[in-house]
Amino acid sequence: MAQVKICGITNEEDALCAAKLGAAALGFIFYSASPRYVAPPAARKIMQKLPPNIAKVGVFVNESAAEIKRVMKYCGLDFIQLHGDESAEFCRSFPEKIIIKAVALKNSDDVENACAYKVAALLADTRHAGLYGGTGMAADWELAQKLSVQKPLILSGGLNQKNIRQAMETVTPRAVDINSGVEISPGRKDPDKMARLMRIVEKVNIANTSKEKIFTKE
Question: In the CATH scheme, what architecture does the domain 3-206 have?
């Protein structure tokens, strides 16, 4: 059973819609260079409106550990997603159970290197032209599948209603991370696209209910 994380949330309307449709987690991007950036005070207001069962994920890119911890406490984050060049050593600055590390998979060496991270989950994404994710480009599903049998995996990268079924059946991730594939414009979600994608995920999940969950709240 794959969970769904809707990332790039910038407003309350989209957040509540995603939660109502069954998303297990919502992602808030605290990287100012991103077109989906949301300032911590605005994110905090949105999070305070969310149902208690929704996992709140803060996305950071090459940020200091001190600043990440400050934002985490201020917003009440459940998970931290490190989407930059953070090392395995840097990840150990935080409890393993709350860390998600994004990795770009280009070859088998990347799969091997990713396994060195002691984290709650790895997120397979793509990088292009110096951008840290959010490119709308699909990850390498073959490499992602190899990683998914070794580590808890979240699949990201250009996922939408047209390819989500094939992606889930090919990679068998524990969760999928959806961003641009359900947007009207960067940072603004389309309720209809989210609803259609969630229905497809639900149908695929009916045939596969054995996966352990990543996004759980104590």
Answer: Alpha-Beta Barrel (3.20)
